[in-house]
Every structure is written in C-alpha cells, then in structure tokens.
Amino acid sequence: MASLAQPGQRSSCWRGAIIRAGAPSKPLELRDLSSSLLWLQACSKANTDFQMASSIISRDVAAATASRSIARLMSLLRLEEVLCMLGALGGLGSASPYHSFCRRKAKSWLATSLRQGMKSGLVRPGKDPGLDVKLMLRICVEDSTAELMEKEQLAKAHLLRALDIGFEGSGTLSLSESDLVGMPEELRRDWAAAGWFTGAYSAHNQKLSEGSTGRSSLCAGKYTVPTGRDSMDRIMPYCASASARQRLFEAYHQGFSAGEVNSAALDLLRVRQSLARRLGFRSWAAYELRPLAAAVREPDAARQVLDRCWQHAQPALAPMLQKMRQLAIGCSKHSAGDEVAHIDEAYLRALASRESDHLKLAEFLPAEGALKRMLETVGRASNVFFRHVPGQPTGIATGWHSGVRVYEMLDGPPSAAGSARQDRRLGFVYVDLYQRRWARRQLAPGAVLIAPGHVYVGLHYQAPSYGSTKLLAPEDAITMAHEFGHAVHMLCMGGCMQEYDDLPLDVQELPSTFFEVLAAQSSVVEEYARHHASGGPPPDTLARSVQQGPQFFARKLRNLSVGLGLHSEEFDAGNASPRELQAAAVAQWQRYSPIKAHPGFSPLGEDAGMYLALGANQEAAKRWLSPEFATRLRSQLLDRPFPGQRLASL
C-alpha cells in the first residue's frame, strides 16, 4: 500500500495535476487531491501569480504570465468539478457549506482576474491557449447577458432532470406470462423478481382508492414492468402481444407529455432564444452551428444536409419498409391493411431484420474479455498499446474505487517479447466498468480528461449478480469503443481539459465516431467477440448483426431534425405553449419518417442522437486495423492540435 503524502507534497500535487510537463510517470492518486483547503490554496497561488504579472515590465512576459495563471485557475476549477463527480474531492460533503465557500471564493477570484486581464489587454480572448472562451464571453458581456447565460445553465439542468425522470419511468405495469409472449427469458427475468410483492402492493392501493373494504388479490401479474426507457427497449422489438406493446408505449410517452418535460424544454428554448438574439444571432441554432464546418454553419445549410441524407436513404429504406408492410397484414390490430402503425414499428422491424440475433451475440461478449480485446482493437487502429497496471492499490491507498481498472497507454504497437525498445508512455486510462450497486440512478457512459495524461472512462454497466458472468449487449460494446476513442484522442493530443473542450465539436466527436463505426464491422467484431464458455468467435451471421442498417440512421435524422427545428427560427418559443411545442416536435420528427406518429407520441422520449455516423464496407474495415492507416490517423487527427478560435468566430 502506498504511503500517505505529507501536507507539503499533497499541496504540490494540485499544481502537478494541471500543469503539462510531459507524460505522467505514475497513475494519479485521487487521495492526494481530496482536500478542499489545499485546492483553495492552489487556486489562491494561481490568483496571486496573476496579480503579480501586472508588475512585470516586459509586456510580452506579463501577458504570458497572466494567461498561464488564468489558465491554471480555470483548470483547477474544472478539475474540482471532475473530482466532485468522482466523489474524491469532499466526497459526500462536496455540497457542504465549507466546500461551497471554497468554490465560491475561487470563482470570484477567477471572475475578477478575468475582468482585469481583458481590460488591461494581458488576457487575449481566442489567442491564449487553455482559456475557457465561454466563461470569458460571459465575463465581458453586459450583466443582463451574463444573467441570461446563468439562466440557460439552470434551465438546461432542469430539463435534464425532467428527462431523467421520464426515461426512468414514473409507474409500473402488471403483466402476465401471456402479455410477454415472444420475449426471451433473459430480458424479463429481473421483472419477475419483485413482481409478486410490487404487484400485490399496487393492487391493494387500487382497491383502497376505489373505497373497497375487501381483501385485494395478491396475483395482479407475474411481472412488474417499469414504464421506462429500458422496458421500451426490451418489449417493443420482441414482445408479440400487441396489447402489451400499446399499454407500455402509451404509458411511457404519457410521462413526457403530461410531465414536466415539455414545460422545462419550453423554458430552456425561451432563454436560449433571448440569449442568441442578445449575442447577435437570429436563433440558438445559428449560434451553436457557427463554429462548425462551412457546410453546416447556418441552420438552413444544416437542414439541406439532413434533407439530402433523407433523400439518399430512400432506396435503402424501401426494401425494409416493404417487408414490414407485408408482415403487418394480419399481424397486428393496430395496423390498417398494409400500413405500419407507430406502435408496431419496432416489433415489425425486428421481425424483418432478424434483430433477435443481437440477443444471441451477447453470449460472445463477456464483459471482462470484451474489455481486454476491445482495448487491443482500438490500440491497433490508433497505433497505441494499452497495458494493464497490475496490483494497483485502490480504496484508501489511492482514492480510487476498487472496481476501477488502470491501464497505461503506450505509443506504438506492443513490443516483441524480449525487445529492448523503450515504449513512450502517453498517459493512463482509468476504466470504471460497472455502476455502483448503491447508485440511485443509471449513469450515462462517458470519458473525462481529469488532468493532462489521465483519462477516466465510466462505462457504468449494470453489475452482474454474484457468481455470474456479465454479458454485454452489442450496443454496449459499441459504446465501449466510442468512449475509448475519446480516451485515445485526449491522451494523444496531450493538452489540458480546457484545450480539449475548446476543440470544435466535430473534431471532438470524429475519433470516437470512427471507432464506433469500426467496432460495428463484422470483420472487426470477430476480433473482440468470443463465446463466454467455449472461447470461439461468433458465426458470420451474428457478427453482421452488429452493423447498423439504414433504419438506425433514419432514426438519427429524425432526432437531429427535432433539435434543429426547435432551436431555429421555425419555432417561436416565446409565444408557444407546451402543447404547441410537442406538436412542433412531432412535425419535425415526421419530416423524416414514413410512418405516421401515434397521437400520444412525444419525440423527446426518443434517443436524441447528435451525429450521423456513416458506415463503410468490410474491405475498408480491415484496412483500418493496418499499421499504415493507424499512422495516418495519428498524424492527421489524433496528434494534431487544433487552435481554439471559437470566441473569435462568435
């Protein structure tokens, strides 16, 4: 077990965590970054260095010193946010009065120093690296505009909470064995575990609400199914009971239509509309699109791109739609003739595309083995090598949870056995495979640059029961590849947190999207998928089932259309009601759907995809794993610094 650092050493740990000085020599110990007082002292030192910069005679030296000090203070505040998220800084007391005081004090120092620096010309927006341009924009605008920016953040947080509640579901359905006909046992097993007690409790409450004095039945249903997104993903494609699908569909979307989601979304759209106009833009969409490529820099241009994608997708979508229409005849009470009803879409698509192969492929994706082989696959494509750090202490020794796995990322392919070559370390990756058993809500996967050379990847899969093997869904494996793509990019670029955040959004997402597409190719699936018992690769038919078809990209188009339309001038949030917002969202969704939306449907309950990933053929996928392609990927994208000019572009 590592020995505890002395107070003086721990104070210097804060400075070392944010200053880029080559690749780190050892894994990060969160324990040394767990003191609010020492964090505030590091912030105070950065603030003092800035104040002293104004006394330097040389203007160039003064500007360089001031910008470095401001960047250091910004990095410390960003690091504080990440450590609070990981439970390292302040732990459960991250919102305690003392820590809140430290945070407010550091933020006030930063705001004051930024105003002084921009007024004196020592801090130059858009030119000095490592500076939070959005924060600088907030500082230099009028107080009324800064207030709108704060309101936008609060409204965004409110909407995220409302969506979280909607995705989780606010009720349950009591379903019988016949209601879930056609569903594999592994998809409904956990609903049966609590079904007897919860079903009896719900039935008893219903009797009481009706004024009945008799005893309630304890057999309301064998399965108690939450009306959340997870149940939708399981039941809608695989359940053969049309009535069960209808009950769940309507209950799930009712949670969005009748809940706070539409009101919260409308509040956010109104604030963003006012803020965009205050900043000189016609709409929030115009403001957000400005830093992107010229082809989508304006809302009208972005809409034209979506229209072209939809037009070009028609030949690929037509055969699947025809199959679904044929299956709809006599297959569902919701579909009239050969028209596909919205409630039946997922089920008929699963029948037409043999989507059940997805479930069979899970037997070839044991979590531990898939993690190791996915790291090897991502490493080959990016010309790096992940090496597990064995015996890394956790818990009290370092501050990391015992479930976190530590890997060092080395430059180049693996060294041959006995080779004397010294591999260049690019940094460390901390992989959190499972969500904590006591967590109240399901956390979304994500990669976070904690400090230069240190990346945390939280996959947050549901942990298996004791003694059993965790099998991943194919979508989980694709998510793993996506997040490791972010991790490779963060370590290859070698910058700090703010420098990464200041990259254009399309540059940030391009590497992760590439690895996501790579992992979906059947020839690559065979590289990381092995049967949990026999260790053999999956059959070709199962390997091909991972690759997303045109229906997947059509769903992405629909969700992109909703976000673009509601944030553009097409929708007047200032004069709209929540009901009108839902109608506008449905109209935007319908632009790219051949199937008429259900009257109770809420597009905000769908998956809001941000990017449209283009597929590629299998021959190209094999080339992606070649050393030549990996070298080009590193030199042309992953290792390149992209100057942040977002503030200047605004």
Describe this structure in words.
This is Peptidase M3A/M3B catalytic domain-containing protein. The chain is 55% helix and 7% strand. The chain is built from 26 helices and seven strands. It has a five-stranded mixed sheet, sandwiched between helices. Strands 1-2 form a two-stranded antiparallel sheet. Strand 6 and strand 7 form a beta hairpin.
Proportion of residues in extended strands: 5-15%
Instruction: Indicate the low-confidence ranges by residue numbers.
Output: 1-8, 194-220, 608-624, 644-650
Please identify the top-level CATH class of the largest domain: Mainly Alpha
Total domain modules: 4
**Coarse shape:** globular
Q: Looking across the biggest beta sheet, what order are the strands in?
A: 3-4-5-7-6
Q: What gap, in angstroms, lies between the N and C termini?
A: 51 Å
Q: Total number of helical segments?
A: 26
Question: pLDDT average, as an integer?
Answer: 78
Largest sheet features:
5 strands, mixed
Protein topology:
Elements (H helix, E strand, L loop, with lengths): L6 H12 L17 H18 L5 H28 L10 H24 L12 H8 L2 H26 L3 E4 L9 H9 L1 H15 L13 E4 L2 H10 L3 H16 L3 H18 L5 H6 L9 H30 L16 H9 L3 H5 L5 H16 L1 E5 L15 E8 L13 E10 L11 E6 L2 E8 L12 H20 L3 H5 L3 H15 L2 H7 L11 H5 L5 H18 L10 H13 L27 H7 L2 H12 L7 H4 L1
Parallel strand pairs: 5-7
Antiparallel strand pairs: 1-2, 3-4, 4-5, 6-7
Helix pairs in contact: 1-2, 2-3, 2-4, 3-4, 6-11, 9-10, 11-23, 13-14, 13-22, 16-17, 17-19, 22-23
Keywords: Hydrolase, Metal-binding, Metalloprotease, Protease, Zinc
Family: Belongs to the peptidase M3 family.
InterPro entries: MetalloPept_cat_dom_sf (IPR024079), Neurolysin/TOP_dom2 (IPR024077), Pept_M3A_M3B (IPR045090), Pept_M3A_M3B_dom (IPR001567)
